[in-house]
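Dear Dr. H.,

I hope your travels went smoothly. While you were away I took the liberty of generating a structure for the chain from your last submission, since the lab meeting agenda had it listed for discussion. I wanted you to have the full record in hand beforehand rather than looking at slides cold. The sequence, exactly as received, is reproduced here:
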Amino acid sequence: MTLSKIFKAKEVSEAERINASTYSQRYFTEKVPKYELSEDGMPADAAYQIVRDETNLDGNPALNLASFVTTWTEPEANKLIAENLHKNYIDHDEYPQTAQIQDRIVNILARLYQAPEEKSATGTSTVGSSEAIMLGLLAHKWNWKKRRQAEGKPFDQPNLVMGADVHVVWEKFARYFDVEHRIIPMDPGRFIVTAEEIAKRVDENTICVGAVVGTTFTGQADPIAKINDALEDIKTKHGWDVPMHVDGASGGFILPFT
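The corresponding predicted structure, in token form, is as follows:
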């Protein structure tokens, strides 16, 4: 048998006959729909390349110090993330060890702020700070409502006292969950709240007071200790047990080490 006949006798697949990069395939010239699934699929490398090139229009996270993003992560952390992306993490029955790790991290964070070592801190991971604020403030609202119900008092006019230095999600919470937001405006030269301004706005319908450590404007921290003292004084005088919700913002991982 001649050499040419050997080649003709062997069936050669499309992949074996073509050595092509992503952009030498049809996706270089043919349109790919943006808002619907196409009739035909595409190779994984082509899909990857198209999406990757679109994300090149985004900013560079390593240069972004303005929106609380991670500027750099160790390769091992990225590897762990990739290896666990396929888990339905919230299914604690199926992934109990991941839940155990979460609980340990919650306690590590609590101890950074001098939580008693013999206690087990309560907390959960969230998709981001916005979800964390929503869940935390919902807990404050429900606690306030239950307390008012137990006392036989109306619970239809909850309010939230906070400064204009809070993240916009605080105002979103107030709108979404029907809570009056009492915002303390900033003054020239003052970009945080004061305990005195907070005390003026607190009443028996206040579900909690919002405070920030590491504001968006200047990175300053609201006077947490003074606000706490003012709330303790209000409790002594009026019997209103108003909690404080502290948003870690950009300072949550800085203050424990300063």
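Two observations you may find useful: The chain is about 40% helix and 10% strand. The chain has three domains: 14-55, 76-124, 129-257.

With kind regards,
E. W.
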